[in-house]
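pinned: reference chain
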Amino acid sequence: MSFSPDLLRRWPDLEGPDLPAMDAADRLILDESSVLRSGAGAGDLVVIGDAYGALTLASVDAGASGVRAHQDPLSGELALAANAERMGLSGFTSLPLDASLVSGARVVLLRLPRSLDALRDIAGLVAAHASSDVVVVAGGRLKHMTHAMNDVLRSFFGTLDVSHARQKSRVLISRGPHDGADPVARRATIDGLVVCAYGGVFAGPAIDIGTRFLLESLPATVPDEVIDFACGSGVVAASLALRHPSLRVFATDQSAAAVASARETALANSVANRVDVVRDDLLSSRAAGSAECIVLNPPFHVGAVVTEDVAPRLFADAARVLRTGGELWCVWNSALHYRPVLERLVGPTRQIARNAKFTVTASARR
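pinned: its structure tokens
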């Protein structure tokens, strides 16, 4: 079997008729890079930000070998592996965003991240470690692209060519790497807490207002272990560890950048010995009924798509992991009306706090 867009799925991510696994930007990147890819040798091609495997698998099917791939969300990695198995394709390896990913690369296919800091991290890494003749073919949907992206790429590459737009998508082609640098977490000290964040992590090196409200509302007494679900930069995990000197925190996120950030945040606040940070799809590494307390500030988007369907999946898995009577403490935008969903998926839910924008609730596992 060979690559087929019709067989490409988003699973284990959300699926639906308005959530395609391959889009016009993927097709444009593949078309614009066709000649470059045909001339690439084994190990020359790197794919970064491939949502569900379209770029990687189409390249392998066209003859590329030794392809190195990086996807920030673990769901993307799992989707790539599942799609490869479904189509009987191999010849690629998933790697972290470090020198091993791009060392000696001659062609890089990149789905442009929406965050300029994330693009800066990627472009700097490629410029530092790829071959001197590397060509970066970076594309995205026009509605998510800005002129500032051109400026970021120009700060690491000598030339930048811009393709014609097609089906509301465009490609930026960069050559001549210079002034490369490995990604470094950005830092800020806020109310005595050192917050560290790599590019693309929600809120960056700051504390968003929802998380701040959750922290203000958490109970004075907690069990011996707390799970920080969808931990982001690790603000909640580090804050709880600082408040409770004997507490162990299990922090988890599916984003590789978030996990790296949370580890840096824990280390910067001298609580790394009590904060375990794991990259996970939901809470799949935790056994059912293994937790007494989970805290959660749920995301509200899948990639660039804003949706209310993300949080219920997290609520359901939190319910699976909680012991009977264990509690899920959650902050959410009041306009989303999550309380009936929490009641249905977790159990009896009480309001802890509410302000002009956010609500904090505690749901007891029935």
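why pinned: The mean pLDDT is 96. Residues 74-87 form the longest helix (14 residues).
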